[in-house]
Automatic annotation (TrEMBL):
It comes from the Eukaryota. It catalyses: AMP + diphosphate = 5-phospho-alpha-D-ribose 1-diphosphate + adenine. Pathway: Purine metabolism; AMP biosynthesis via salvage pathway; AMP from adenine: step 1/1. This is adenine phosphoribosyltransferase. Keywords: Cytoplasm, Glycosyltransferase, Purine salvage, Transferase. Coiled coil: none annotated. It is found in: Cytoplasm. Pfam families: Pribosyltran (PF00156). PANTHER family: ADENINE PHOSPHORIBOSYLTRANSFERASE, PHOSPHORIBOSYLTRANSFERASE DOMAIN-CONTAINING PROTEIN. It comes from Aramus guarauna (Limpkin). Belongs to the purine/pyrimidine phosphoribosyltransferase family.
């Protein structure tokens, strides 16, 4: 699909076909959504699908996870007219931070951090990342927000939550889905293929 083509019928997830498969090996994500971000209508429809479940929810701030979550997170913040908070890999912030170790999708041990002056107790946060594969990265971001007193989700009413292009049906993905309000772009008919990385 070229970067100008828009299908006559735009069903949820049509833009997923814009993504490119991994050609660099196991240390990289299996699918690269950055080509989707280059397609104007694809990006708009992706954002609309991601934010639809949160319409009317009381969200105070959007937080995006380093690094590709910055793209979707900033776009979500702009669409919702909310502020944006970057949750960074350790070593990039020159201010007071809170750190959280985690294991990423490739099994590498890492540390994530967030500035301590941006989240006040009770602040309702929508966490956004490009992809939730094993759930380790998103879970670390949730822990950072909650350790500072922010609210990612509560059963009723749900003040915010988690959004990603895909939330895989992994142990970590299920843990997140069971505890937080989640939004993603993969239609149910395609979810098994995404879970198998096909």
């Amino acid at each position: 699909m070229d970067l100008c083509h828009v299908p006559a019928v735009r069903e949820k997830g049509w833009y997923l076909a814009l993504m490119a498969p991994n050609v660099k090996g196991p240390n990289y994500a299996w699918l690269d959504p950055s080509r989707l971000y280059c397609h104007p209508q694809g990006l708009q429809d992706c954002m609309a699908d991601l934010l639809q479940p949160f319409q009317g929810d009381p969200i105070d701030m959007v937080a995006g996870i380093d690094a590709m979550g910055f793209i979707l997170g900033a776009a979500a913040a702009a669409a919702l007219q909310k502020g944006f908070l970057a949750i960074r890999k350790a070593g990039h912030l020159c201010v007071q931070t809170l750190a959280q170790p985690y294991t990423d999708y490739s099994g590498r041990e890492k540390v994530m951090e967030v500035r301590t002056d941006a989240i006040l107790p009770g602040l309702r946060i929508l966490l956004v990342d490009q992809w939730v594969e094993t759930g380790g990265t998103m879970r670390a971001a949730i822990q950072l927000v909650e350790r500072l007193g922010g609210v990612v989700a509560a059963p009723h009413p749900c003040p915010a939550g988690v959004a990603a292009i895909c939330i895989e049906d992994s142990e970590g993905g299920r843990w997140i889905r069971e505890r937080y309000k989640c939004s993603h772009c993969v239609p149910p008919s395609l979810q098994p293929r995404f879970d198998r990385h096909q």
